[in-house]
C-alpha cells in the first residue's frame, strides 16, 4: 500500500511506521522489542542506542502502535480520523554536550540548560482511495511549545518474500520548536551565551524499511534512514555542524492470531 502523510510533528509512532501488518481481530496483535541507533546533531554528544517497545494493539476505538497511542474518531467509506498522542525524544541533558566542542563554538557548557523531551498530541487522517495519511500534532508538554508539519510518501513493495518500503519525508519545524532544540534560551543568554535563534526550518529524510516473516509467528523488521538538516540548524553553536544524521532500527515481533 502506498502512503502519503502530512503531519504537524515527527511522531515516533512505531519502530517502523512504514511496515504495515495484516488486518486481524480486535485485541493485542503483536508484541516485541527493537533497538534504535541514531547519530546526535549536538556538538560532542554521543550517538544513542535505545530499546524500543514493539507493541501493536487494536481495539474497537483505542489503539497502540509502538510509541503512539490514540482513539479512532471516524472510520467510514475509506476515510479514517484518529486522535493520537506520542512522545518526542529530541531532548538532551546539558552535561551530554561535549565541553571541548562547545568551547570551539564559543559556548561554556556550564551556562547551558537541558532540552527536555516532549509529548505530541494531534490528529491523523487517512484515505484508502488516496493511499494516504494526514497527521497534525503539537507539543503539549510545554517543552518547546512548538509544532512540526511533515509530508511523507512511502511505496511498499514485495521483494523476495519481504516487504520493502522506500520513503521520503519533508518536515517543517516551527520557529519555537527549532529555537528550543537548536537555538539558545533566554536564561542562557542572560548568563552571557551569545544569542542564536534559527527560526523555522525544513528537514528532509530518506528511509528504507524492511519486514520479513520468520516462521509462522515471528516478524523481523528493520529500517535505515538519513536525515538532512538545513544550514540554519547546523550553523547553531549547539550543533555538530554535520548536515546528515544516520539512523538504524531493528526489531523482532511475535504475532498473535
Describe the structure.
By secondary structure, this protein is mainly beta. The protein has a single domain (3-255), classed as Porin. The chain is 9% helix and 50% strand. The chain has four helices and 14 strands. The protein has helices at residues 99-104, 175-182, 186-190, 231-234, and strands at 3-7, 27-38, 48-58, 62-65, 68-76, 79-88, 118-127, 132-139, 148-154, 157-159, 162-173, 201-214, 218-228, 244-255. It has a 13-stranded mixed beta barrel with strand order 1-8-7-6-5-4-3-2-14-13-12-11-9. Strand 10 (157-159) and strand 11 form a beta hairpin.
Terminus-to-terminus distance: 22 Å
Named CATH architecture: Beta Barrel
* CATH class identity: Mainly Beta
Instruction: Give the tally of β-strands.
Output: 14
| Approximate helicity band | under 10%
Structural domain count: 1
**Spatial order of the strands in the main sheet?**
1-8-7-6-5-4-3-2-14-13-12-11-9
Overall outline? globular
Helix-strand makeup class: mainly beta
Please write the string of helix (H) and strand (E) elements: EEEEEEHEEEEEHHEEHE
Tell me the radius of gyration. 19 Å
> How many helix segments?
4
Mean pLDDT across all amino acids: 85
Short characterization:
With 257 residues, this protein is mainly β. 9% of the residues lie in helices and 50% in strands.
Blueprint of the fold:
Layout: E1 3-7, E2 27-38, E3 48-58, E4 62-65, E5 68-76, E6 79-88, H1 99-104, E7 118-127, E8 132-139, E9 148-154, E10 157-159, E11 162-173, H2 175-182, H3 186-190, E12 201-214, E13 218-228, H4 231-234, E14 244-255
